Structure prediction request, 232 residues.
Amino acid sequence: DGGITQSPKYLFRKEGQNVTLSCEQNLNHDAMYWYRQDPGQGLRLIYYSQIVNDFQKGDIAEGYSVSREKKESFPLTVTSAQKNPTAFYLCASIPSRGASGNTIYFGEGSWLTVV
Amino acid sequence: AQKITQTQPGMFVQEKEAVTLDCTYDTSDPSYGLFWYKQPSSGEMIFLIYQGSYDQQNATEGRYSLNFQKARKSANLVISASQLGDSAMYFCAMRALLTGGGNKLTFGTGTQLKVEL
Prediction:
């Protein structure tokens, strides 16, 4: 079955450490996204990528970095510069602009906690 | 720039009643898509309904309907015959479909719906 796989589901990070969250999709989608969600809050866009080797900053990119070396993969690194990284992180993808898809596909999310 | 506004942080509805969740949007793109998603406490995002900006009729999916008023830039979700299982967070989202806006997906801050007996 096609879908988006995020890993790990739960992750603990010590202060000062970088951590990388994985997002893999086998839907052949061009566009991929990372969102951060704090408890009881909405989804805020961190980074998004519309094509391999290209990505754009979202609304809260500071303290995060991404890469898009393969169409299937869009990993997110939470760096030590992110002062309050404890949150729920969601990865999403959609077909390319012009395609017929009208659904956003989401991964199951990753819970990151700083200890 | 595109923006989604959900002005109701929380809503209560009695079982079997209908409820409307508000969503207004702002975009400079003439072509866009509007989505509603449900997020239960487990965190998964469940697709409910989609409306294209050029669709002539309002979208419906079972108990869900989208009251799309393009001139007012609103895309309210109507849930008919509420069920206890409808208790969740609901998000409105928009996707720009032309160059410039690219494929940026913007979400609102959500509405927490609680269905009561």
